[in-house]
Design goal:
Blueprint (H helix, E strand, L loop, with lengths): L2 E5 L4 H8 L5 H5 L7 E3 L4 E4 L36 E19 L4 E9 L6 E6 L6 E21 L8 E9 L9 H4 L1 H11 L3 E5 L16 E6 L10 H13 L3 E10 L17 H13 L3 E10 L12 H20 L4 E6 L10 H14 L4 E6 L14 E5 L12 H22 L6 E6 L25 H15 L5 E9 L16 H12 L2
Helix pairs in contact: 7-8, 9-10, 10-11
C-alpha cells in the first residue's frame, strides 16, 4: 500500500523535503563532511539570460540559486545551450564541493569553472551524464573568487535548464569567517524544526476517500483552478503540499483541469497526450487529497490545440462530436467512481455550442447523466455565454469571466466596481430575456495577471515579461471589485480563480495569486461569503 505523509508547513524546509524526498536531513542541510566544510556565501551573481514567459518563469534574479531558499530559482532563456551563470564570492576562497539542486528542467551536460577575474576561466568539473535531482560534486580544493556553471545540453530540447540552489562549500580551515549552511541561513533550519513538529495527514492511494458532501445550489463555491500540463505532477508531494496550502487559505472547491488535444481547429480526433494529459492515477490521487482536506472537486474538461490556436476557434463536425463524446463520457464515468462533486462537460468551445449543434450537446448531456449523478456545468467564454444553446439542460451556468473592464492601465477601485456592476447587469438582462432567472451562475474561471493594465484584456497570455510592469494592486483590486459588485446577487454562486499551479514558484507576473496581494483579498472574501 502506498502511503503519502503530507505536512502543512510554510517555509523552506518543507519544500526541500518535497523536492528531494529520498534525502536525509543531514544530506539536505549539511555537506557530507559537515565537520570540515563550510558554506561559501556568494556576494553577487551574473547570468547570461533569464526565462521570460510570464506564467512559468521565475523572477529574473541571479542570486536566486544562492539565497538558501528552495522556493526561488534561476532559469535562462528556453531552448538554448551554453547559457551560464556565475557568482562572485566577494574575495578569493578555497572551493572543494558543489551541490546542485535541479528543478525539473535540468542540464544533462554542464561544466563548472572558476576564475580570479571573471574573464579567464579554469574548468574544475565536466559532467556529461547529469540526471537532475540533487547532484553532489566533489573535487580537489581550488582557490578562486568566481564560480561559473555553463549548461551544455538540456534534458528537454524545448526547455532551458533551471536550478533551485547552487551550493558552494570549502574547507573551514581555509575559509576563515565562513560558516555552515544552517548558520548562514538560520530560517531554513527553523523551518525544518517546525516541519518535524507539525501533524501529518495520511492519504492512501489504495483507498477511496469519501466526499465531504454534495454541492448544493445554496452554497457559494469558493474555488480555484488547479492547473498542470504534466502526466504525473498531481501525484507528487509538491502538489500535495500546494493542496494543503489551498485548504489553509479557506479554499473549499478545487477545479482540476484535464486536458486532451487535437492537431488544429479543423481536426476531427481528440486524444490524450501521454506526457501532458494527467494520468488516471495522478487524478485519483489529487481528488483523494482534496477530499481528505475537506475540499470538493470539479473535474474540468479542456481541449487544447497542438498548433497553438485557441479552442474557441475549433470547427466542429459530426466526427469531432463523436470523438468529443468519448472524451467526456470517459471522465463522467471517472467522476462517478471517484466521488467528484461537480463535472464540467466543456470549456470555451464557442463554435460548438450554438444552436446548430444543440442536439449533439443534448445527447452528450443525457449520456453523462446516465453515468454520473452529480451536477453538471459548462464553462462558456465571456463572449460566448449568450449563444450557448443548452443552458436549460445543465445544472449550473459557467462563465469564464474575462470581461474587459476599463480602457485604463491604472483604474481606481471605484471605476472597477462600476465596470463589474455593468457586467452583472448585462448577465441579469440576458437571463431575464431567456427565461433563465433562478439558474445559478458560477465563474468557472476569473483571473487577472499581476501587471499594469490587466483589467483591459484579462484573457491575454503575455508572450514575454519584457516591458511589463508588475502591478499586484491592480490584480487584487479587480478581484475585490468583482466581489463588491456581485456578491449580493442571488444568481452568483461562486468562482474558481484562474489559477494555482502545483509548484509554488510559478507565475510571478501571471494569474496565480500565491504570495501576492490578491491572495489576502481572496481569503477575506471566502471568509465573508456563505
Amino acid at each position: 500500500m502506498k502511503k503519502i505523509n503530507i505536512v502543512l508547513v510554510s517555509g523552506i524546509w518543507f519544500l526541500v523535503t518535497l523536492i528531494c524526498p529520498g534525502c536525509s536531513n543531514a544530506n539536505i542541510d549539511k555537506p557530507a563532511q559537515s565537520g570540515e566544510l563550510v558554506y561559501l556565501k556568494a556576494a553577487s551573481g551574473t547570468a547570461s539570460s533569464f526565462e521570460d514567459t510570464p506564467d512559468w518563469a521565475p523572477k529574473p534574479d541571479p542570486m536566486a540559486p544562492v539565497d538558501g531558499d528552495l522556493e526561488t530559482r534561476w532559469s535562462p532563456a528556453s531552448g538554448i545551450d551554453n547559457e551560464w551563470i556565475y557568482f562572485d564570492l566577494g574575495r578569493e576562497k578555497t572551493l572543494s564541493k558543489i551541490i546542485i539542486r535541479w528543478e525539473e528542467a535540468y542540464a544533462t551536460a554542464y561544466e563548472i569553472s572558476v576564475s580570479d577575474d571573471a574573464v579567464n576561466w579554469k574548468r574544475v568539473v565536466l559532467k556529461k551524464d547529469g540526471k537532475g535531482g540533487v547532484e553532489d560534486l566533489a573535487f580537489d580544493p581550488v582557490r578562486a573568487r568566481y564560480v561559473k556553471i555553463t549548461g551544455l545540453a538540456r534534458f528537454n530540447p524545448e526547455w532551458g535548464f533551471s536550478m533551485w540552489e547552487f551550493e558552494m562549500y570549502g574547507p573551514g580551515a581555509m575559509n576563515p569567517g565562513d560558516r555552515t549552511l544552517d548558520e548562514t541561513f538560520p530560517k531554513r533550519a527553523e523551518a525544518r524544526r517546525k516541519a518535524q513538529d507539525t501533524p501529518a495527514v495520511n492519504v492512501s492511494d489504495d483507498v477511496l476517500v469519501p466526499s465531504p458532501g454534495p454541492i448544493t445550489k445554496e452554497e457559494f463555491q469558493k474555488g480555484v483552478n488547479y492547473t498542470s500540463w504534466n502526466r504525473d505532477e498531481l501525484a507528487g508531494k509538491v502538489s500535495d503540499s500546494t493542496l494543503l496550502y489551498l485548504a489553509g487559505l479557506g479554499v473549499k472547491h478545487v477545479a482540476i483541469m484535464v486536458v486532451w488535444y487535437q492537431a488544429d481547429a479543423e481536426a476531427k480526433d481528440i486524444f490524450r497526450d501521454d506526457s501532458k494529459t494527467i494520468s488516471d492515477e495522478a487524478l485519483r490521487h489529487a481528488v483523494n487529497v482534496c477530499h481528505s482536506l475537506g475540499m470538493k472537486v470539479m473535474l474540468k474538461s479542456h481541449v487544447d490545440l497542438e498548433d497553438g490556436e485557441f479552442r474557441t476557434n475549433i470547427l466542429p463536425s459530426e466526427e469531432w462530436f463523436d470523438s468529443y463524446k468519448r472524451f467526456i463520457l470517459r471522465y463522467a464515468e471517472f467522476s462517478a467512481k471517484n466521488n467528484v462533486e461537480i463535472f464540467s462537460i466543456g470549456t470555451e468551445l464557442a463554435n460548438t455550442t450554438i444552436v446548430t449543434w444543440q442536439k449533439r450537446w443534448s445527447d452528450i448531456i443525457g449520456e453523462v447523466r446516465r453515468l454520473y449523478n452529480g451536477p453538471i456545468i459548462y464553462g462558456a467564454n465571456w463572449d460566448e455565454y449568450e449563444t450557448v444553446s443548452f443552458w436549460p439542460e445543465v445544472d449550473y451556468i459557467g462563465i469564464d469571466a474575462y470581461f474587459p473592464l476599463t480602457d485604463k492601465t491604472d483604474p481606481t477601485k471605484e471605476e472597477l466596481v462600476e465596470a463589474w456592476k455593468a457586467r452583472g447587469d448585462e448577465i441579469e438582462e440576458y437571463f431575464n430575456a431567456k427565461g433563465l432567472t433562478g439558474k445559478p451562475v458560477i465563474f468557472t474561471e476569473v483571473g487577472y495577471d499581476a501587471i499594469d493594465g490587466s483589467n483591459m484584456q484579462p484573457w491575454r497570455v503575455l508572450p514575454t515579461l519584457a516591458d511589463q510592469k508588475e502591478d499586484q494592486k491592480e490584480q487584487s483590486d479587480c478581484l475585490d471589485a468583482m466581489m463588491l459588485a456581485l456578491s449580493g446577487r442571488s444568481w452568483f454562486k461562486g468562482l474558481y480563480w484562474w489559477n494555482y499551479f502545483p509548484r509554488p514558484d510559478l507565475g510571478p507576473l501571471g494569474y496565480t495569486l500565491r504570495g501576492k496581494e490578491g491572495e489576502k483579498v481572496l481569503v477575506d472574501w471566502f471568509k465573508k461569503v456563505k
